[in-house]
Amino acid sequence: xxxxxxxxxxxxxxxxxxxxxxxxxxxxxxxxxxxxxxxxxxxxxxxxxxxxxxxxxxxxxxxxxxxxxxxxxxxxxxxxxxxxxxxxxxxxxxxxxxxxxxxxxxxxxxxxxxxxxxxxxxxxxxxxxxxxxxxxxxxxxxxxxxxxxxxxxxxxxxxxxxxxxxxxxxxxxxxxxxxxxxxxxxxxxxxxxxxxxxxxxxxxxxxxxxxxxxxxxxxxxxxxxxxxxxxxxxxxxxxxxxxxxxxxxxxxxxxxxxxxxxxxxxxxxxxxxxxxxxxxxxxxxxxxxxxxxxxxxxxxxxxxxxxxxxxxxxxxxxxxxxxxxxxxxxxxxxxxxxxxxxxxxxxxxxxxxxxxxxxxxxxxxxxxxxxxxxxxxxxxxxxxxxxxxxxxxxxxxxxxxxxxxxxxxxxxxxxxxxxxxxxxxxxxxxxxxxxxxxxxxxxxxxxxxxxxxxxxxxxxxxxxxxxxxxxxxxxxxxxxxxxxxxxxxxxxxxxxxxxxxxxx
Length: 504
Fold this sequence. Notes:
- The protein has 504 residues and is mainly alpha-helical.
- It has one domain (2-503).
- 72% of the residues lie in helices and 1% in strands.
- It has helices spanning 2-15, 18-36, 42-48, 58-82, 89-92, 96-105, 109-142, 147-164, 169-183, 209-227, 247-269, 275-289, 301-325, 331-342, 356-387, 392-409, 414-432, 437-460, 472-503, and strands spanning 186-187, 194-195.
- It has a two-stranded antiparallel sheet.
């Protein structure tokens, strides 16, 4: 415990350096801006700006990505409230559309944004508690993992995100399989034999993860937007009321925020559950315990607080399995995991031993980002509301340019721009046919881990496959794999029930 407290203190000392504070401010502003723009996602923003972090210290780079993540989640509520158009996919499923916009129509736009911002801040800040105290415990468990366990762990990661994040279990698993096939490109990790390189020395170390991420999440979005008619956003509602809440209103929403924090945190820790389920659960529980049930759906501050606190509480919770086990729960954390690997860091126990200083600096930065989000939100809500009106005619060429420049800047190699464009087409087709881009990324990242785990296990046992079933941890992970395949059915049923309950 003493060591943990010492690491926490050292992390905060490093996090408050001028360069880190500037990084927090800039990334939070960028994240909120991305969140405000309808159609853009936190995953797209993180993927797009990954190349910017290359020249940074790993801790600073991760803080930047965390700032974009948190900022984008909150930013989605601004356009949802003011123009009734969700900024991020997470906001599309939130109950903010049920209560935020009705408040706006009643001339309470300032109050609705105040509630969303305060709830987002509290949810995100409180989620850091579990991030600090649960992560080291899970990392200690991961230290017991050997080659067979890592093989099953990689399969578990694939089944979770491939199944939960797709409308079809089969399509989700196919997406993960495509990622696994792509991960075999490059030199054989055990024998050094070239595989599927097609004479391209650029592919010696496999497909560049950053190029793949930019293509799948950012370039595909460009193609989706370009396919549609150029859209000019509707005019945002004016804020005619006072920005802020009374003491009585803060007191009223406080129990809802605490309840939604617990819900969002637990949902975030569970790989594959995602923010949309947390939002509906937060909203439904807010209504269940409210003394003003008749206000829900017509403009309830408790409804906005319940969904937004749960939504942001997912952020800290979802980082726990990502950092300790390498199992991201949603597309954003899959991209963040890619960012870790790009900086030469492998998710797992080493982050809490060898790289503990960097990890706790990131944790401290994640805490401070919540305060920057609150400050930037309070000062700039009116400005961000105008950003949400930005036309696709400006967005499309801007994002395209950033995609090309970002992928070229990695190694100053045109081939990697081509790779990014290919993955952009793959991502576009995946979205058109309801396949799962996050599962493709996960297959690309987890494929080598699973392959090494399997081949090393068989090498140790002289080809005897029973080694894969030799420990209790193996059987636990096998059970989790089965649960990961079956969980989409349960999650789909739960989300449908929550949605119906929220709309009734």
